[in-house]
């Protein structure tokens, strides 16, 4: 499930406070960078705050408003890079792309809106602008390290893609008498009627069915020959 960018207000301590982390599940604080402005989409920069980087997420907290804060899991960040090109953005920053559940049209439209209403579920770009640009390389290295700690989960293939069969499965299919030619053709090195050297009733039935077909063909050929001599 893609979470995307979300509001974050869980703080502890006095003043601006610090974010509450999920220590019970192993979340640890990796880096704290004060004096960072956040830019969401094409909106104006927020007033400077403090960036907290943990082993699982980024948390930005405003220094002047305890009710203002944003967070995004590393699993929802599809790209992060250092941007120093003034044509791309006026200030050196860390540029990130965020995966959301909104479709592309909705996401693009939200980025261009600069009104008071902000739907974080449609924000696909975020820039982190430190007051000290010399910290960009350090931030980028920590981003990379934490991203490696949060690899994308591997989707398990469905049962329909499972092409490995056990001997018991093959014998069970043979006993049903369905697709017997397919089962045999998939194992041409074994003699007909044998599976791992064990002879059983199901395989014997297969052999008898094949032999019966041969006998029927022979009888038809004999009948045709007799008809030709008459």
TrEMBL record:
**CC annotations in GO:** cytosol; methylosome; pICln-Sm protein complex; plasma membrane; spliceosomal complex
Give the family from UniProt. Belongs to the pICln (TC 1.A.47) family.
* GO terms of biological process kind: cell volume homeostasis; chloride transport; mRNA cis splicing, via spliceosome; spliceosomal snRNP assembly
Compartment list: Cytoplasm; Nucleus
What is this protein's record name? Chloride conductance regulatory protein ICln
Q: Which organism is it from?
A: Liquidambar formosana
Q: Which domain of life is it from?
A: Eukaryota
Compositional bias (Acidic residues): 170-181
- Principal location class: cytoplasm
- Span list, region Disordered: 170-198
Q: Which UniProt keywords apply?
A: Cytoplasm, Nucleus
Polar residues: which segments have biased composition? Answer: 182-194
Q: Which InterPro entries match?
A: ICln, ICln/Lot5/Saf5, PH-like_dom_sf
